[in-house]
Structures are given as structure tokens and as C-alpha cells.
Amino acid sequence: MIFLGSWATLNILSGSTGYFLSEKSTKYFHQMNAGWNLVNAGIAGFALYNISQMDVASLSYTQSLNELQKLDKFLLLNTGLDVGYMATGAWLWERGIRKKSSRLKGYGKSLIVQGGFLLAFDLVLYFLHSPITSDLMQLTESINVTTSGFRINF
Question: Could you tell me the keywords of this UniProt record (predicted)?
Fold first, then answer.
């Protein structure tokens, strides 16, 4: 979330500056980058706040595993949304060309860039995170609990 917040901050600053220094579709590209990343900054801040409030030590093993699985599913859902953002951006860009609209072209280009970043971000997080979940699932399957104790099968 720190990485997402840093990306958002960079885009808010460069987008705000670029908006006032640019013309035509580039102006709207920067405007959308700044606006889009106000949302990203909010998401990153909200997530960091929730993480800081979480009492990880009180989670049971099962609760921890459930949280890991939820995060994996959430990241995969987000990748689908990211592709949708990029597709919407391509549609806006194309429509802007047909309508000769600098605003639509700029917004479309921005959505493609921002969606592409989020797609890469979510996929990298998923591929870093899902092996942890998978390893814990395998560990869970190898533990047998009996009335006399437990046994780990390797």
C-alpha cells in the first residue's frame, strides 16, 4: 500500500502540474491522472489505517488462512476490473478521435496508463502472495489431529 500511495502521490503532483502546463488532450490526460490517483491515495490510506488497527496476534490459524484466501480472490477480481479500465480507456480514446474531443482522448489515454499500472500492481501482488497461501494450505492438509495429539505428514 505504501507503493500504491507513492504512485498516487507522484501522479497527483505531476498531473496537477501537467494540467496547468499542457494543452489539448495532454491537459486532460494529466487531469485524469490526478483525479484517478486521489482515489488510489484514499484506498492506500484506508488500507494502511486498517492494517495498523488489525490485531494480527489475535487471529487464529484458520482466520489467518481465510484472510489470505480473501486477499488472493480480491487481487484476481481487481485484475478483471483493471482490464475493464483499460478497455474503457481505449473506447474513450477512440471516441475522442471520432468526435475530435481532446478531453475524451486525454481521459482515454490516462485510463489505459492507470489501468495498466493497476493490472501490473495487482498481478505482481497476486504472484507474490498466492504461493504463501498455497504453502499454508498444503501445510494444513499435511497435519492430522487425533485424540492422542497431532501428526505432520511430509
Answer: Membrane, Transmembrane, Transmembrane helix
